[in-house]
Design brief:
The protein is of the alpha/beta class and 371 residues long. The chain folds into 2 domains: 61-147 and 340-357, Rossmann fold (3-Layer(aba) Sandwich), CATH 3.40.50; 149-329, Rossmann fold (3-Layer(aba) Sandwich). It has helices spanning 39-52, 69-78, 92-95, 108-113, 133-136, 150-165, 168-171, 204-213, 241-244, 267-272, 290-298, 340-357; strands at 9-12, 18-21, 61-64, 83-86, 101-103, 119-121, 141-143, 194-198, 217-221, 234-236, 250-253, 277-281, 302-307, 327-329. The strands form 3 sheets. Strands 10-9-8-11-12-13-14 form a 7-stranded parallel β-sheet. Strands 4-3-5-6-7 form a 5-stranded parallel β-sheet, covered by helices on one side. Strands 1-2 form a two-stranded antiparallel sheet. A hairpin with a 5-residue loop joins strand 1 and strand 2.
């Protein structure tokens, strides 16, 4: 006959994981009279099987919104460490009330409703819509998609530039007329030109790699100490932007929209650029003084501009930017690609697992700075 069984007991590990070890015939107290000196050993060995087979008493709840039903199912099938709960816009506030994580929304209402939230993941690289006091002043970790959107946005940035430097923006005007027209076609080479990238982050570094591959000399402007990159010759702090602008044949805007970056390219900055230089913006329209940009283009201080983002956005049909021949405009589509969803889902899975294990999350944002 077995001696008396040990009672159930709980083993608590770093949050949010805890285990309840159930008593079993293999987890018992031996008779104190028979084996008093071996009691600790018996307790450890007899309970080992129960401890190893124990399951977490709770899993973090992750509410997801703004993604497809198939993507929700993929998360559920791939992640055993967390409870994945889908929510429509109407269901969000009620379902986030007891959630540990939220993917796809950072609204102030959702943050207020999520009393237990520890993590919020955005679907985009920009987080200017996530700057509510409810989130910024909370201990909630905010993560974004800055790295996973780098490749396609960088591709788009170079496509905008090449459409201007190779004259594709004007050559395509002949197609509807079925005209084989070569007159006035004067493309320029990128090799040997200097590219200045404002914002050498997840997107800016990808632009730098591509510009370098075209044989361009690449300089950067960024508030952070950027690690040495083979594709970037030198990086300057933002307060030296005006000093380095005269060297640039092309300026790529890849900085996030923050209080500090709003309107950082204005009349003075465009005047400091080489006459005939190019400007490409794939970050946010508000980083640029739009009237100053229009003036620089109309006066041909700038040879051209490639814009995936504008201020305002959408761009009104009567805006002067539409009327300028030396401007290529796309409707904020640089972040789209056939590989985006795959990379984004991998980021979500990694961060869910990290949250469950208490590990640092990927793509964490400095909420005070906004990037």
């Amino acid at each position: 006959m077995f001696p008396s069984r040990a009672p159930d007991f709980q083993v608590t590990l770093p949050p949010p994981v805890s285990f309840v070890v159930k008593a079993s015939p293999f987890c018992y107290y031996p008779s104190m009279k028979r084996l008093p000196s071996l009691l600790p050993v018996y307790l450890v060995l007899s309970c080992l099987l129960s401890l190893l087979s124990a399951q977490p008493s709770s899993r973090p709840k992750i509410v997801v919104t703004g993604i497809t039903a198939d993507q929700v199912n993929e998360l559920r099938q791939s992640i055993a460490e967390a409870e994945i709960v889908a929510a429509t816009r109407e269901e969000l506030l009620s379902r986030v009330a007891d959630a540990d994580g939220l993917i796809g929304s950072c609204s102030a209402d959702a943050i207020r409703a999520g009393k237990k939230l520890r993590w919020v993941q955005t679907l985009s690289a920009g987080v200017e819509g996530c700057r509510s006091p409810e989130l910024v002043n909370s201990p909630i970790v905010l993560t974004n998609a800055k790295i996973i959107m780098g490749p396609e946005i960088a591709d788009h940035a170079l496509a905008l530039l090449l459409s201007l430097t190779r004259g594709l923006n004007t050559a395509m005007l002949s197609k509807p007329k079925a005209e084989w027209r070569r007159q006035g076609y004067q493309p320029i080479e990128l090799r040997g030109k200097t590219a200045l990238i404002i914002g050498v982050g997840g997107i800016g570094t990808q632009i730098a790699e591509r510009a370098s591959a075209f044989g361009m000399r690449v300089l950067g402007v960024d508030p952070k100490d950027i690690p040495l990159l083979n594709s970037v010759e030198k990086t300057y702090p933002p307060d030296q932007l005006r000093e380095v602008l005269p060297e640039a044949d092309v300026v790529f805007m890849a900085a996030p929209h923050t209080t500090e970056s709003q309107g950082m390219m204005g009349t003075r900055e465009f005047a400091l650029m080489k006459r005939g230089a190019y400007f490409v913006n794939v970050s946010r329209g508000k980083t640029v003084d739009t009237p100053a940009l229009v003036q620089a283009l109309a006066s041909h201080q700038l040879a051209g501009a490639g814009l995936d983002v504008t201020d305002p956005e959408p761009l009104p049909s009567d805006h002067p930017l539409w009327k300028l021949d030396n401007v290529v405009i796309t409707p904020h589509i640089a972040g789209q690609s056939d590989q985006l969803d795959t990379r984004r889902m991998e980021l979500f899975k990694n961060n869910i697992r990290r949250l469950a294990k208490g590990l640092p999350l990927l793509n964490a944002v400095d909420k005070q700075k906004g990037y």
